[in-house]
Amino acid sequence: MIDKKQLTSNIPKHVAIIMDGNGRWAKKKGFFRAVGHENGTKAVREVVEASAEIGVKFLTLYAFSTENWNRPKLEVDTLMKLLVTSLKKEIKTLQENNIKLNAIGNLQSLPEKARVELLEVIEKTKGNDRMTLTLALSYGSREELIKTIEEISIKVKNGVISPHLINETVINEHLYTKNLPDVDLLIRTSGEQRISNFLLWQIAYAELYFTEILWPDFKKGDLFEAIYNYQKRERRFGKTSEQLS
Ligand code: IPE
Ligand code: IPE
Ligand code: MG
Q1: pLDDT of 44-74, one tens digit each?
Q2: Active-site residues: which are they?
Q3: What residues are in contact with ligand 2 under a 6 Å CB criterion?
Q4: Which residues line ligand 1 (CB under 6 A)?
Q5: pTM recorded for the entire structure
Q6: Ranges of H-type helices in the chain
Q7: d(CA 9, ligand 3 centre) in Å
Q8: What residues contact residue 190 under an 8 Å CB cut-off, 6+ apart?
Q9: Domains of the chain by range and CATH?
């Protein structure tokens, strides 16, 4: 097991996690899927605290995708209720650890109660500056890109932006993630090796890390393990090894 003392330098600035495997975790134990989601919130607390402890500045968690609306209504309702109770409960953890809450996604589509609670915690924690915790809620990367293209097109039509001045910066400024740097490390739990419509633009040069661990079982040590693995990699960004050394 990796200890956080082994991770002193080269901490990824932005870690993003696809928290997957709650349903399978519950099934294995003979519980309803909802129990898996409830236990998933404990893993959220683990990674939030662990990330802050080692100096990660941005942690982004995929909590609910645009595609997840297609799950049975009962499960969607459970997840939305769990969001409200977790926000009420965890605001204390956020304040104690000086963490700012942020959200990306189509927040308008969230139930009123969840949206109100979310915006309240965002407002209350806006002065915190140790780490930014971003929850991706009703988030889909393609939806985000469509929104971005629409907004930029309107500006072009109105003469605010000239088409040949559209560059990466302009696009970044129109994404939900406009205040976040590119992802350095993307983790997915549960053994699935896919992106599932998460941050397609923002992970262009992220290091990918897949683990078999089901999300509710993911502990601080597992995050440290992922970061230790990341630190052993050489990020070349198209250059040669010799150029880097
Ligand atoms: C991740 O766990 C949580 C959400 C997608 C909301 P799943 O619910 O996808 O769990 P599995 O993949 O069915 O095991
Ligand atoms: C991705 O997990 C979305 C979240 C973790 C919130 P899913 O379980 O929904 O992904 P797929 O459908 O298996 O790709
Ligand atoms: Mg899943």
Answers
A1: 999 999 999 999 999 999 999 999 999 999 9
A2: 20, 68
A3: 18-20, 62-65, 68, 192, 194, 196
A4: 19-24, 64, 68, 79, 190, 215
A5: 0.98
A6: 22-29, 33-54, 73-96, 112-124, 141-157, 168-174, 220-231, 241-244
A7: 33
A8: 20, 21, 24, 212, 213, 214, 215
A9: 4-140+182-233 (3.40.1180.10)
